[in-house]
Amino acid sequence: MGFLTAFDAIAKSIQGLFGGLLMIMCVGGILTLAVLLTIKKIDKPIAVIAQALGSCILMIPVMWGLNNFVEAKVGAVDQRDKIRERERKIDELQGKIRQIEGAGFNLQQFEKILKVGLVETKLRQTYMTKNIFDTSHRADFFFPYDWEYLGVMTNNVTATFGIDLKLVRLYNSGGEENTIVAYGIKPAFMGALENNPFVEISEIRQLMLDGNLDVKETKIDNSSQAKNALIKQERDMMNAYQSRLNKGLQTDFMDDSVVKLAESFIKMILAPLGKEITFSEEPHKESFPLEEFLQMEMDVRKRELELLKSQ
Question: DSSP class of residue 249?
Answer without folding.
Answer: T
